[in-house]
């Protein structure tokens, strides 16, 4: 599933491609993707004649801001956006099309059909699910060492489970939790409340740095992720542990191990993360 760096990369590419375009028609071929409003015809009606004014992101959610509405889109496992000519042939797994007045169209493709779309009056999107329960952004001033300590000190869960919780901190998924924990030297099965102050400061720093570096590289191409222009991310070439089972650790040469932690396949170095 795309995490913060991948969604941020999609946001940046869409910003280059569709800002200022006005929707002339909306076509929906897989209605289950549309979650709000629950009537697909109403969904279409709301968006026609709306201009795309801004592309935002909240955690792993893509926010397409229109004249009067905000479209909240989650890509799930394999959702992709692409800009086409309206006359281009329809490709397989294309489920939603936003046609523009200039003869181009933004198409949403999703092999697994797990993606979701919600439409809210602009300014209301943060007050309702799926955004209302989300924690702070890693790059925001709200994500402080004090906040992280507060979240960790009150739970019996493992540090891996806490960092995957989008109510605690948004944008982190399996890839970047594994990477940040390695860089901080913390075993994924450590009890969150056992993390010492010095380790906490290191973890806070490494979460931010890991995500910043991944954004700069366009995210990680794991499985079939590409951005909105069909380009792959390059951060996977810098991964320390994720997807590197039985490969030598880049720091100590110990073989990377994989286990299930917090219900997810988890990669770690048994020497660097005791």
Output the CATH class name of the largest domain.
Alpha Beta
The order of strands across the largest sheet is: 2-9-5-4-3
Structural class: alpha+beta
Q: What is the name of the CATH topology of the largest domain?
A: N-terminal domain of MutM-like DNA repair proteins
Distance between the termini: 28 Å
How many distinct helices?
Answer: 6
Instruction: Indicate the overall shape.
Output: elongated
CATH homology group of the largest domain = MutM-like, N-terminal
Kindly report the average pLDDT value: 93
Structure summary, number of beta strands: 11
> How can the largest sheet be summarized?
5 strands, mixed
Write down the Rg.
20 Å
Q: Helical proportion?
A: 25-40%
In short:
The chain has 274 residues and is an alpha+beta fold. The chain has two domains: 4-127, MutM-like, N-terminal (N-terminal domain of MutM-like DNA repair proteins, Alpha-Beta Barrel), CATH 3.20.190.10; 145-268, Helicase, Ruva Protein, domain 3, CATH 1.10.8. It is built from six helices and eleven strands.
In words, what does this structure look like?
The structure is a single chain. Helix content is about 25%, strand content about 25%. With about 270 residues, the protein is α+β, with helices and mostly antiparallel strands. The protein has two domains: about 5-125, N-terminal domain of MutM-like DNA repair proteins (Alpha-Beta Barrel); about 145-270, Helicase, Ruva Protein, domain 3 (Orthogonal Bundle), CATH 1.10.8. It has a five-stranded mixed beta sheet, with helices on one face. Strands 1-7-8-6 form a four-stranded antiparallel beta sheet. Strands 10-11 form a two-stranded antiparallel sheet. Strand 7 and strand 8 form a beta hairpin. It is elongated, with a radius of gyration of 20 Å.
